[in-house]
Design a protein that fits this description.
Blueprint (H helix, E strand, L loop, with lengths): L2 H8 L23 E4 L3 E5 L4 H22 L7 E6 L7 E4 L6 E5 L15 H16 L6 H9 L1 H6 L5 H14 L9 H12 L21 H17 L1 H11 L7 H9 L3 H20 L8 E4 L4 E7 L5 E10 L2 E10 L4 H17 L16 E6 L7 E5 L4 E9 L5 E9 L5 E3 L6 E6 L4 E7 L2 E7 L5 E9 L2 E8 L5 E8 L5 E6 L4 E4 L2 E2 L4 E7 L5 E8 L2 E8 L4 E4 L7 E6 L4 E8 L2 E8 L6 E2 L3 E2 L6 H4 L19 E4 L6 E11 L4 E10 L5 E9 L6 E10 L5 E12 L13 E17 L2 E16 L2 E19 L3 E16 L2 E16 L2 E12 L7 E3 L15 E2 L9 E3 L1 E11 L2 E10 L5 E12 L9 E12 L5 E10 L2
Parallel strand pairs: 2-3, 3-5, 45-46
Antiparallel strand pairs: 1-2, 1-33, 4-5, 6-30, 7-8, 8-9, 9-10, 11-12, 12-13, 13-14, 15-16, 16-17, 17-18, 19-20, 20-21, 21-22, 23-32, 24-25, 25-26, 26-27, 27-31, 28-29, 29-30, 34-35, 34-52, 35-36, 36-37, 37-38, 38-39, 39-40, 40-41, 41-42, 42-43, 43-44, 44-48, 45-47, 48-49, 49-50, 50-51, 51-52
InterPro entries: 6-blade_b-propeller_TolB-like
Protein name: WD40-like Beta Propeller Repeat
Keywords: Signal
Length: about 950
């Protein structure tokens, strides 16, 4: 089994389960979870999502029947589906374990300009895409022993998941399009962008196809190019040839994707991909030749992802959201540019050229850039990774914008804020309201609200109070881009209904009437409505046959005109005061801002228009099998509704390995059971040092997290030969046999980035040191707390812990504390921090504290308050009743470069410097939930002893 195959398997989870914030859970297990169980699915949800969840259960059964009919493949295992909305954004993921498959569906629907907006319904598209992942990747191996091992060891099961990311995502996207006639394969906006990449010779190489890196849209290429390559393979070699690859995948003879592919195509996937790129590029460039030169002129040259341009009322400033990815560092900023030419930059450029010619009259100086980048006047950085979106000007100094907020259940909501560009002050206007795109006038806000899978248009005041529903929330429609005309008497917006295309509607408030804007016949994509300055026209972008054009609809004449030719992908038109407009145009480096003079000479009257959102999917894809029309129907007769309780328990073998050069090596074997929400889980574990038998023992854990107060019981027994450790401080034979029971209750609370967890513990332990027995029990009350404030270019983090302890050692009472304070800060990528730890016990009970050793499934650090763990030192390196540690460090994502000083009582100090890291995963299938990885390399310099270089690597379950 290869580790990289497990990592590849985990990457299927589009939600990125392995996040940098180990405390960030996708769900709150303490909520009132319910389960709706049908013949083949268990759908888990909280009451707010009941309608969406039960509707999705019906859709799942329909999708399963069609996939079985189409592919003659089916999952025998019952699939668990979790209906969640942790980000207030459209997403989902599947975990294709052959014995325990599950998927998560995010209820928030996509917006009109999204690459996943072309569907009969968001729910249908999402269910289909994620279920195809499971059928495609979770087929049981026809090898009996591999199949049996996968049943009992889920990490091994995950390692069997085959194929690169482009294979998994490309195939699911192919089926989403073939079975619905919609999807990303038939998205005009997507096709226009991919053609633009092709004409620039910028389609990704085969090696880049699965990568998400600094390149613009690189993370989407596995879907967008992957589906087109697989469709090309089917068209040129036959559907059965491609299908044979998946059959060979699960054979008794184990094959990689490349081996499975080459055996039926008689060529490699990488080589055939080159031919696909050549053909696609040829078609795109042939098409490009028919277009005349564009009338749009480059106005602002940008890099990376750019969206939501907005011009100030006086036309002096342009606000725009920019996302810059540099070496995996993702920055989101709201820049405000001057609309005037950058005279300073022009002067500087000319002066530089003059100096060059003065020194060398024969030199040829650089040409002037196509446009000098306009001056950035004001910048707003995102705070605490909340993002920035959709700026709208309230007046010439105030911008209303959107960003995410976090509630006490760690769920994200889209809310509105104000920013005064002159003072720099920001203010939160709404709290947990899930308001996405919006428009404003001086008195109120009109916004699309997406909550629990429902979409509606609402009116809010600037103090965050809801005034009314303009379009009542429903699961059957999706609304987007509300845009008020100049006197706020009319509202333009984009709407999608079940089984129909997006449309633009005009609502007149006085009469409460609606009017559908005519669109070009055969259109698929429509978005970005923008009123003309005189309110007599509406501009928007629509897509026909893979071309995105800017259109103008004139109300009085009821005429529709194409304003641009469709040569380049266009988006986000915004009016200027001089009857010209700015718009974005996408290229392979990202969107740039262009200026377009509005005149009549290049307008093309569109004679064939439609006001219908009807779409004939068989005209788009003539594949035999098609899903029935989407419906948000709730049918409780197809299943049984019940409380989630302890959830579907999924058991697995667990393995752990600890390699510590200062102490010993420890192998751990266990059995763990739990549910995906980690509501109720338990583990039994045996541990043994297979080389020198330094440490051996057994442990058990049981945990309940279905209430606001989390409960844990941990029992253990181990034998430790202190003197046999590699860097033992003892030379005499010393064996410690220890057993104990920990009972713990924790109560976590959260406000934004402030996390506080109150803890109460009772611990009883019995220790025997060289046949001398010792009983110890204690009670702990305390808290762990973290807080951060991150403004992207700089930020601070703070962590503290205070535990007060009251115990008894062989009838001798004692008290003590464990305390820690850590502070760190960063400027851009450079960070520095300091940490102080103090542990103290009263002196009337002997030396209770020991320094050294490491955490493992057997020895859980939280169960040993009298042990000071330090992986660079052996267990019991020193003992005392007072311990202090001073540490300075430079943090990185999963660890730190550090220098620390250990001080144990009156004993010599120990100085340590090196690098260490830790990651603990809190969500996923049973085998990886609360799986912790520790690693490090450190130089240990005792004050009066020899120096040593120590290294460690630990893989264990942290409870």
């Amino acid at each position: 089994m290869k580790l990289n195959k497990i990592v590849s398997a985990l990457s299927v989870c589009a939600a990125s389960l392995l996040t940098s914030n180990a405390n960030a859970a996708l769900v709150d297990s303490a909520l009132n979870w319910q389960t709706f169980e049908t013949e083949n699915f268990r759908v888990h949800y909280t009451p707010e999502y009941k309608d969406w969840a039960l509707s999705s259960a019906r859709e799942m059964e329909i999708v399963r029947k069609l996939i079985k009919k189409q592919q003659s493949r089916v999952l025998d295992e019952k699939v668990d589906a979790y209906i969640i909305d942790p980000l207030n954004a459209s997403n989902g993921f599947a975990m294709p374990l052959s014995s325990k498959p599950y998927m998560a569906l995010y209820a928030t629907p996509p917006q009109s300009d999204s690459i996943i907006a072309n569907s009969s319904s968001w729910q249908q598209l999402l269910v289909l895409h994620e279920y195809v992942h499971l059928v495609h990747l979770a087929q049981k191996s026809r090898s009996s022993w591999r199949n049996q091992l996968a049943k009992v060891w889920d990490v091994y099961d995950a390692s069997l998941i085959n194929g690169d990311r482009w294979v998994a995502e490309g195939y699911a996207t192919l089926q989403e399009s073939k079975l619905t006639g919609r999807g990303r394969l038939y998205h005009d906006g997507v096709e226009s962008i991919i053609q633009q990449f092709a004409t620039e010779g910028a389609l990704p190489t085969y090696q880049q196809l699965s990568k998400a890196d600094n390149r613009f849209m690189s993370g989407s290429m596995a879907y967008l190019i992957g589906v087109r390559y697989l469709k090309w393979l089917e068209d040129n070699y036959g559907e059965n040839t491609l299908d044979a690859v998946w059959t060979r995948w699960s054979g008794v003879k184990q094959r990689t994707f490349d081996q499975s592919f080459e055996g039926v195509f008689q060529d490699t996937a990488a080589h055939l991909y080159q031919r696909f790129v050549a053909e696609y590029t040829y078609k795109a460039m042939s098409k490009e030749r028919k277009f005349e030169k564009s009338d749009s002129k480059l106005w602002l040259d940008l890099k990376g992802r750019v969206n939501s341009p907005s011009i100030s009322p006086d036309n002096h400033h342009l606000a725009i959201v920019e996302t810059i990815i540099d070496d995996e560092d993702r920055k989101i900023i709201l820049n405000v540019y001057s609309t005037q030419e950058n005279a300073k930059a022009i002067k500087k450029f000319n002066k530089k050229n003059e100096e060059i010619l003065e020194n060398d009259p024969l030199d040829i100086t650089s040409k002037s850039p196509k446009v000098f980048k306009r001056e950035v006047k004001f910048t707003l950085n995102q705070i605490d990774h909340q993002g920035l979106r959709d700026p709208r000007w309230l007046d010439d100094e105030t911008i209303i914008y959107g960003a995410s907020t976090t509630d006490r259940h760690n769920q994200k909501h889209q809310d509105l804020f104000s920013w005064n560009i002159k003072t720099g002050k920001t203010k939160q206007l709404t709290f947990g309201e899930n308001l996405r795109r919006f428009d404003i006038n001086q008195n109120y806000i009109i916004a699309e609200q997406s909550r629990y899978g429902y979409s509606g248009i609402v009116k809010y005041t600037f103090d965050g109070k809801k005034v009314s529903d303009i379009n009542k929330a429903t699961t059957k429609n999706i609304y987007d881009f509300p845009r008020l005309n100049s006197d706020s008497t009319k509202l333009a917006y984009v709407q999608s209904a079940l089984n129909e295309k997006w449309q633009i509607k005009i609502k007149t408030f006085d009469s409460n009437s609606e009017h559908i804007i005519p669109l070009p016949q055969g259109y698929q994509f429509v978005s970005y409505p923008e009123w003309s300055n005189d309110d007599k026209s509406l501009y928007f972008v629509a897509g026909v046959k893979g071309e995105l054009k800017l259109y103008q609809y004139h109300f009085e004449s009821d005429a529709l005109f194409a304003v641009t030719s469709g040569k380049h992908p266009i988006s986000w038109p915004i009016m200027q005061n001089d009857d010209s407009l700015l718009h974005l145009s996408i290229n392979s480096k990202g969107p740039d801002v262009f200026s377009l003079k509005l005149n009549n000479k290049n307008k093309q009257l569109i004679s064939k228009t439609t006001q219908s959102g009807f779409i004939n999917i068989m005209d788009i894809d003539r594949s035999e099998h098609k899903l029935a029309k989407a419906s948000m129907l709730v049918d409780e007769s197809i299943g049984e509704n019940k409380s989630y309780g302890t959830g579907p328990q999924q058991g697995t073998i667990t393995l752990g390995q600890s390699i510590y050069s200062a102490s010993n090596n420890l192998f751990e074997l266990g059995y763990k059971s739990g549910d995906i929400l980690s509501r109720f889980d338990w583990q039994l574990n045996i541990s043994h040092d297979l080389s020198k038998n330094v440490l051996s023992g057994a442990s058990g854990n049981i945990r309940w997290q279905g209430w606001p107060v989390k409960l844990l019981a941990h029992g253990y027994q181990f034998d430790l030969k202190i003197d046999k450790q590699k860097e033992a401080a003892f030379t005499d034979n010393t064996i410690i046999s220890e057993s104990g029971l920990l009972l713990e209750a924790t109560y976590p609370i959260q406000y934004k980035t402030f996390h506080l967890s109150g803890t109460a513990q009772y611990k009883f332990e019995q220790a025997e040191i060289n046949n001398i027995k010792d009983n110890n029990n204690y009670v702990v009350l305390g808290f762990d707390q973290t807080w951060s404030w991150d403004k992207q270019v700089w930020g601070i983090k703070q962590k503290s812990k205070v535990y007060l302890l009251d115990g008894e050692q062989d009838s001798q009472d004692y008290t003590g504390h464990n305390a820690l304070l850590s502070m760190s800060a960063h400027i851009n990528k450079i960070g520095l921090g300091a940490e102080f730890e103090s542990i103290n016990r009263s002196n009337n009970a002997g030396d209770l504290l020991s320094l050294g050793g490491y955490g493992s499934t057997l020895i859980q650090p939280k169960a040993h308050q009298n042990k000071v763990f330090a992986p660079e030192l052996a267990f019991y390196n020193a003992t005392a009743n007072e311990y202090k540690k001073y540490e300075i460090f430079s943090p990185f994502e999963f660890g730190r470069i550090f220098y620390s000083r250990h001080k144990m009582g009156e004993q010599d100090e120990i100085n340590v410097y090196g690098i260490k890291g830790n990651f603990t995963n809190d969500f996923g299938f049973t085998g990886i939930t609360n799986l912790s990885i520790d690693m490090g390399l450190a130089q240990v310099n005792p004050e009066n002893g020899p120096s040593d270089l120590q290294a460690w690597l630990g893989l264990w379950h942290k409870w």
